[in-house]
Amino acid sequence: MAEPKKLFIKTYGCQMNVYDSSRMAEAMSADGYVLTEDQAEADMVLLNTCHIREKAAEKLYSDLGRLKPMKAEKPDLKIAVAGCVAQAEGEEIVNRMPLVDLVVGPQSYHKLPAMARGEGPRVLTEFPAEDKFDHLPKRATRRAPTAFLTVQEGCDKFCAFCVVPYTRGAEVSRPVERILAEARDLVERGVREITLLGQNVNGWHGAGADGHEWHFGRLIRAIAEIDGLDRIRYTTSHPNDMTDDLIEAHGDEPKLMPYLHLPVQSGSDRVLKAMNRKHTAAEYLRLIERIRAARPDIMLTSDFIAGFPGETDQDHRDTLKLIEDVGYGTAFSFKYSPRPGTPAAGRECVPDDVADARLQEMQALLTRQQKAAQESMVGRRVGVLFEKTGRIEGQMVGKSDYLHSVFVEAPDARIGDLIEVEITHSAANSLAGKLL
Ligand code: 5AD
Ligand code: SF4
Fold it and tell me: The dihedral of CA 364, 431, 256, 199: what is its sign?
């Protein structure tokens, strides 16, 4: 048998890319590629890119620049670019960086093995109507205890700052039976926690086996029926798609974890309108109230943008106020970055130093909230799903129900065990716990 070829994958950006990378690795393994963690020994380097902010996209070009000496030394090395930069820039990538052999957009990953064999185009970024997941092979290997599962892709919301509707295209929901089959397969291979993914995951609406259209809450309940699966999460959601049914599931479906990433972006109605978010700050706060009524201990997280075009000091203070009112477990905040082709790209920007200062103020507040949320866990009992061993002998590391990393001394535990733990200590980005 021929020596296996080695594939190195670098994944940028969101969890959707992490999922796609794992599916591409499985597809390439059918062609004799094994994954390597060491880029230097790779026969193929695959960069799975992100286009959401300018910095993320520019990273691709600096990484490609760094690959030049390797390619010069090893002319057979294949370099492939996948993901949202591939989709957005296509042909331009090979023009700017001729060392790139292949460019493949997110909807065409099933063609990657053929392209790598030289049996396809060099650049493929069209949006085909077929479900690429049907064509992506899976290997019956044992899996880590947690896994991602993409149920929905693309977005029809057109927030004024966002490239997703252009790079990932219109919303597409995978049908129920496909999702359930993939979830069952994951559980058979050792997965105990599944995170359902979609750019607008709670907007998922797919065809059920009964011929009816299902909504997201019902999908969660169907997945929860799988024996051996203990935990369900989902990300990312839009406030306007938090249906009653889904909120109810947070109240009464024990496998649905008490954690929700619900981006609001801004606390100012003026800015929300300019962003085309289609809801007000008060509507968001009311929604949070209803979610907390269903599940009082739920941990909330969000994304925020500082310095969106037209944002005033008062708008910024409104955002800080909303953050204070909600009390987040953790949150991500970004400085506005104009993206070519989006409605906000041509609008006048807030001066850089002002945006920077606002971002810092927001981050300081969010860091304080994160610290408080973590400290409030001390003394509480939570389930922890062990994902790996720690650096100290006998130590295990896992995630709590609320998605905190928890370190526990548990010499007899195994990866994949879900155990109740008492939280004893809160550190910068993790918790420590002890077995009961
Ligand atoms: N500039 C800054 N942040 C952005 N995001 C999306 N587009 C931009 C942009 N152009 C942020 C939003 C989104 C998260 C994934 O990235 O907060 O929720
Ligand atoms: Fe982008 Fe808005 Fe769609 Fe989220 S909802 S992917 S921010 S357009």
Answer: positive
Beta-ladder partners of 47: 10, 81
C-beta 164 within 6 A of ligand 2 = yes
DSSP secondary structure letter of residue 413: -
- Between vectors from CA 148 to CA 147 and to CA 154, what angle results, nearest 5°? 175
Domains of the chain (ranges; CATH) run 5-124 (3.40.50.12160), 138-257 (3.30.750.210), 381-435 (2.40.50.140)
Using CA atoms, how far apart are residues 416 and 265, in angstroms rounded to an integer? 35
Nearest-angstrom CA–CA distance, 24 and 28:
6
Q: What angle do CA 395, 259, 49 make, to 5 degrees?
A: 80
Which of 220, 282, 214 is CA-nearest to residue 246? 220
Tens digit of pLDDT for each residue in 291-321? 999 999 999 999 999 999 999 999 999 999 9
State the Cα–Cα distance between residues 165 and 125, nearest whole angstrom: 15
Q: In angstroms, what is the span from residue 163 Cα to ligand 1's centroid? A: 9
Atom of ligand 2 nearest to the CA of 162: 1
Q: What is the pLDDT of residues 349-405, one digit of tens each?
A: 999 999 999 999 999 999 999 999 999 999 999 999 999 999 999 999 999 999 999
CB of 157 closer than 6 A to ligand 2? yes
Backbone torsions φ then ψ of 311, nearest 5 degrees: -70, 125
| Burial of 73 from C-beta contacts in 10 A (0-12 / 13-18 / 19+) | exposed
Pairing of strands 395-400, 405-409: antiparallel
C-alpha to C-alpha distance for 361 and 319, rounded to whole angstroms: 11
Does the CB atom of residue 163 touch ligand 2 within 6 A?
A: no
Kindly give the distance from the C-alpha atom of residue 162 to the centroid of ligand 2, in angstroms, as a whole number.
6
pTM of the model: 0.93
Return the exposure string of 410-423: e unless at least 16 CB atoms fall within 10 Å of the residue's CB, then b.
Answer: beebeebebbebeb
Those residues with Cβ within 8 angstroms of residue 390's Cβ, 6 or more apart along the chain or in another chain: 396, 397, 407
Residue 96 vs residues 58, 62, 108, 130, 217: alpha-carbon distances, Å:
12, 12, 22, 31, 45
Q: What is the CA(122)–ligand 2 centre distance, in A?
A: 30
